[in-house]
Amino acid sequence: MTQSVPPEPPAQERPITRRPLFWLIIAIVLLLLVIAILVGMAMGSTNDPDPTAPPSGPPTPTSSPTPTSSPTPSDGPTPSDEATPTPAGAQIPSDCADIYTRDLTAEFDGLVLNPAWTLEPGSGVRRGSKDEVAVALLESTAELTCSWANPRGGSDRGLTTDVARVDPDEAAGTLEHFASAGFTCYEELEGTRCVIESAPSPDGKSGESHFIRDGVWIATWWVNAGPDGYTHDIVAALFG
């Protein structure tokens, strides 16, 4: 005998877990959750910086510090206030005998160094130049004057050398003046030398030699006297 199967109750009377719509909704919710998680992970991996990548640039400061100026000391001159020092150059001795490397008396043939009459006021002994511009400067800059003269008084033979200290501007101006005044100027012995000589006459010859190096000026005027190498010997004595 065949048993009869009880009829299926209506859907609204079934338990909710046995309703197909319930599981469909659950499946949709789970799918949406999975999609949301995947999207969130993708966005997070895009926004997070790669720890191995170099920084794209320095951070922008929120404010710039105001530099503070260092106070200028008031107890000393600034470098711009200090005058350019004059080259020290050679030491100028106080004794004329020390401007030569040897005794030149024999080579001056009867003239002697600084005879007494040349040291008297109004002796008429010239400076180491006849040029008015050079004489004016020598009056204020010469530290030593050495004269080779006749021991009995003035004659037609003699030589005077001034050793002066000049600053760079004075040295440059003096050399420019000599060049424009007809002197022959040339580089020699690490300095500059300017010379001039008169034409021979019944009275003989005269001339001048000016040597400037490192702020030292050797000015020599001569008439019918002066051994060869005279200025060279002074340079050797003063500069070594």
Please characterize this protein's 3D structure.
Strand 4 (184-188) and strand 5 (191-197) form a beta hairpin. The protein folds into two domains: 16-41; 86-239, Protein Transport Mog1p, Chain A (3-Layer(aba) Sandwich), CATH 3.40.1000. The protein has 240 residues and is of the alpha+beta class. Helices cover 25% and strands 19% of the residues. The chain is rod-shaped. It has helices at 20-47, 132-141, 168-180, 230-239; strands spanning 112-113, 142-149, 158-165, 184-188, 191-197, 206-213, 216-223. It contains four helices and seven strands; from the N terminus they run αβαββαββββα. The chain starts with 19 loop residues before the first helix and ends with a helix. It has a seven-stranded antiparallel beta sheet with strand order 1-2-3-7-6-5-4, sandwiched between helices. Residues 51-76 have a biased composition (Pro residues). This is DUF3558 domain-containing protein.
What features would you highlight for this structure?
seven-stranded antiparallel β-sheet; Protein Transport Mog1p, Chain A; rod-shaped; 240 residues; alpha+beta
Characterize the biggest β-sheet.
7 strands, antiparallel
Please state the structural category. Answer: alpha+beta
Report how far apart the termini are: 151 Å
The averaged pLDDT comes out at 80
**Count, helices:** 4
Tally of distinct domains: 2
Tell me the helix content: 25-40%
Low-confidence spans: pLDDT under 50, at least 5 residues?
51-87
How many strands? 7
CATH class of the largest domain: Alpha Beta
Named at the architecture level, the CATH assignment of the largest domain is: 3-Layer(aba) Sandwich
Provide the β-strand percentage band: 15-25%
- The H/E string reads HEHEEHEEEEH
Rounded to an integer in angstroms, the radius of gyration calculated over CA atoms is 52 Å
Q: What is the CATH T-level topology of the largest domain?
A: Protein Transport Mog1p, Chain A
Major sheet strand order: 1-2-3-7-6-5-4
Q: Which term fits the overall shape?
A: rod-shaped
